[in-house]
Amino acid sequence: MRRFLVLVGGVVLSAAAFSGPVTAAEPQATLYIAMGDSLAWGDGASVPERNGYVPRLAGYFSGAKNGGAERLINLAVRGATTSDLRATQLVDAVTLIGDPATDARVITISVGGNDLLDLINDPSDPCLADATSPTCQFLLFTAMSGVATNMPVILGSLQAALLEDPGAESIYVLLPYNAFSGTGHPLEGLIAAVMLGADGSVDCTVDPSQYGLNDILGCTGQASGAVIVDAYPLFEGHVLELTHMGEGFNVHPNDDGYAVIAKAHRKAGD
User: Which of 53, 97, 116, 169 is deepest in the core (most CB within 10 A)?
Assistant: First the structure.
């Protein structure tokens, strides 16, 4: 019996020697990932890294009941379209989500506006010359079709990656505002029709062929389980107060405008 105990003791000691000390696993970094265009980047804010809507939300999303995201990673690129986001930012976001050292908690997305603004950025653009022309209508159709193609891929890819990520997550999709609202600009009515569609509202029950930009963004987001943040009505009639449009052709929010967008996110998430 004594010989047996000595042998067993030797095996236990040997196993301990080979296994080494037990160390605790490194805690995962909890992330808030921002994606999108110049709005997510903070263009127009007095200090973009502090007064844009993304940094304003970073503190809110760090709260335990709002996601507990301790670290902000802003992937946004000024001027990005839905195609740009799909080609670059989406790849980076999925990589971050899949990193075993991270735990993504919140993702915000602001994109789609440049898909349309790219048609009216230059004086020679056909839509500025004649918004009712066949050329302009074809370009609008092509741009809207691109958004309708890209958004399901973007949101579907993010949701698929998040399924493999620990814990609960939230995705927020921002519906942009009409930057010409209340300015008296000739494009005010056209942009409103393009953004809200035939019925003048975000409505997922109508024929998708009648969708506007915000219908596509909102209905795709809703179908994917995202939180929808509708900035459109918040800027109606207040564009000159909340953006730089009064200073020239600058559609970006000022600090007050970014505060409105951040508040809309907080309200939508409650």
Answer: 53
